[in-house]
Amino acid sequence: MKKDKLYLIDIAAVGDYVDYDLNDDGTGSIFNIEKRDNYISRKAPKIKGSSYRGERLEQIVASNIDNFFIVTSIFSPEFNNKVIDRFLVVGESAKLKCFIVINKEDLDQENLLSEWEEIYSIIGYKVIRTSAKTHIGMDKLNELFKGKKNILWGQSGVGKSSLLNKIYPGLNLKTKLISTFNEKGTHSTVTSTMFKVDKDTFVIDTPGIREIEPYGIRKEDLGHYFREFLPYIKNCKFNTCTHFHEPGCAVIRAVEEEEIFPERYDSYLKLLDTIEQDIIF
Questions:
Q1: Are the beta carbons of 275 and 217 closer than 8 angstroms?
Q2: Cβ atoms of residues 156 and 187 within 8 Å
Q3: Model confidence pLDDT, tens digit, residues 31-90
Q4: Could you give the dihedral angle defined by the CA atoms of residues 110, 116, 118 and 119, in that order, rounded to the nearest 10 degrees?
Q5: Is 195 helix (H, G, I), strand (E, B) or coil?
């Protein structure tokens, strides 16, 4: 195998149902993976120093999920709506029920969170304010988790593991402080792990990431994963409209008439510009 060539094979993902043989010594082997109801994935990160120039492959993060919790923070690291929108595209393309968790609410002294909470709520997403320090939102999360298979995903340092530790102290997940130099998180979780926390309740803790790049989405399809675009897309002049420069675009007209939030449309354009390009993590 050449050292500069990238190989990525997903044999089984967290959340898969599998058939396996178990040996007397406790080891075993998987011989079948059941059909997945759904799965969440991203473009596989580039390996630094690799000269591989082919198409980026798909990295499956978890499968058979009921709830997708996109975890962010209002500060430390600072809130970034464009990152949230990328996660939402990943969740919408997988047809998952998406929730937005804005953590570290106790740091929001000027109530900056309210504006974003309103925007995403109007679009149709449930937004949960949380704080592992003051316990705000813990009961809400606990109730939403019950009887479901839940995945928490977000940038490094936003506090996914801290939230799970507050709700389920027995997990005792590793956590790390945010860097005071650049406000970027460090990876306390290095692999995705699923925990059974109740009879029918599972939570998946995932490694934090710096950037998220959706996999397998074409430019002409991206708008379908911005749910507020959907009522207008059918009225666009062209079936392959990318809602950027085409004449007769109903989405652009809706933005101009303030029927679509400009913050979301700007986020869409930024993602559209990179959707078919490679991003180095």
A1: yes
A2: yes
A3: 899 999 999 998 887 655 544 455 678 889 999 999 999 999 999 999 999 999 999 999
A4: 150
A5: strand
CA dihedral of 247, 253, 255, 260, whole degrees rounded to 10: -120
Q: For residues 252 and 258, what is the distance between their CA atoms, to the nearest angstrom?
A: 10
Q: What is the pLDDT of residues 236-263, one digit of tens each?
A: 999 999 999 999 999 999 999 999 999 9
Sign, Cα dihedral of 274, 179, 153, 34: positive
- Cα–Cα separations (whole angstroms), residue 187 to 155, 157, 176: 9, 7, 8
Amino acid at site 37: D
**Which segments within the chain are labelled E, that is strand?**
18-22, 28-33, 39-43, 58-63, 67-73, 97-103, 126-129, 149-154, 193-198, 201-205
Tokens at 88, concatenated = 């939402």
Read off the pLDDT of each residue in 174-183 and give the average, rounded to a whole number: 50
What is the distance between the alpha carbons of residues 6 and 224, in angstroms, rounded to a whole number?
Answer: 31
Distance CA 86, CA 241 (A): 20
